[in-house]
Amino acid sequence: MKSPVIEPAGRTENITYAVRDIVVLANEVAKTGKEMLYLNIGDPNIYDFAPPKHLVDATYKAMLGNKNGYAPSSGIKPAIEAIEREAGRKGIDNVLDIFVTTGASEAIDICLTALVNEGENVLLPTPGYPLYTAISSKLQMMSNPYYLNEDNGWLPDIGDIKNKINDKTRAIILINPNNPTGSLYTKENLQQIVDLAFKHNLVIFSDEIYDKLLFDGKKHISIASLNKDVSVITFGGLSKNYMVPGFRIGWGIISGRKENLNKYIEAVNKILRARLSANHPEQYGIQPSLEGDQSHLDAAMKKLQKRRDLTVEMLNAVPGISCVKPEGAFYAFPQLQIEQPDSHFVAELIKETGVVVVPGSGFGQVRGTQHFRVVFLPNEQILEKAYKKIGGFFEKYQNEYASVKQV
């Protein structure tokens, strides 16, 4: 007797994760023996980056000291206190609650779960990190993307945000510096978002996981520092700034008016208690990371600035490709002047050259535009080789599909 098919929950139908999904094709191509050049995963440890020694030592010491059981649901006291001091350095001096999570992604998931009911929506940056759309699908939230303006350095389009706010909107999400574009938001732009959030009683979710990875002497501004009355959750973590994505240590900082947020904070803590705790020994690396020697950042940014500059120069030199200069993180989001979907271009690129990038459609983009995301963490030799292959392939692709837009 044939068993009936087990049907998955409908909420999973629209969950995709382009960064990982593209690896399925890349793995098939790799089996043919083709040399692969991976520019798709934002993991510094795959390349020539490593965490500061005092972070690793503190974690190792905690493990040897048998800090291997459950931690407090919100995190260990030394970590919480260090995160609060870090918030103060960022200008956030009205902190109401802090909690440590399994990566910033868990903090984001918990905070959205505690806030948004089925049928409600949050304003999602487009382009933006696919995690947010995946969580939206899981929570059966209504889609409500707002666009970043490529012609204005990929800053949020304030007019578009205004037009997208409705009576079901609960929050606005920022990724600053942005993944996938590498844009860094200005004080003026952030202030306009603060004003909208205050006017419409929206919670701001500010993902600042790349806040120390900045180019050209730029300074990061935490949006929570601009208005003490607006409800803000600031997300951070060790993954990118301190080169330990596998540790899965992140956090959330809730700030604003206590009377407005008390019930919401309790809802967040209910979920925190139900899932027990984040990784325990790794939490002992938070305080030494935030307050110890930061010289690894100087070394990392010297490498990344060269690789950023090479990326922008070589991609902009290809007719039909344009790339806005990133100001933070380690991503670029070049535009392709083609009529074919960017997913088709990327698939053909991988099969033909072995260069693995991620199609822009996996992050969202203005309708009618095509992009791809590159990660410029690899060394200059790998990047130069990859970009030459992209340039050569793009010329061939133009000729084969006769689909380059006239600009």
Explain this structure to me?
This protein has helices at residues 18-30, 53-64, 77-89, 103-113, 130-139, 158-164, 187-200, 258-274, 286-291, 295-316, 342-353, 380-401, and strands spanning 37-38, 95-102, 121-126, 145-149, 155-156, 169-175, 203-207, 232-237, 249-255, 321-322, 331-332, 335-336, 355-356, 358-359, 370-375. It is of the alpha/beta class and 407 residues long. The radius of gyration is 22 Å and the shape is globular. The model is unreliable at 403-407 (pLDDT under 50). The chain has twelve helices and 15 strands. The protein folds into two domains: 10-50 and 295-401, Aspartate Aminotransferase, domain 1, CATH 3.90.1150.10; 53-291, Aspartate Aminotransferase, domain 2, CATH 3.40.640.10. The strands form three sheets. The chain has an eight-stranded mixed beta sheet, sandwiched between helices. The N and C termini lie far apart (62 Å).
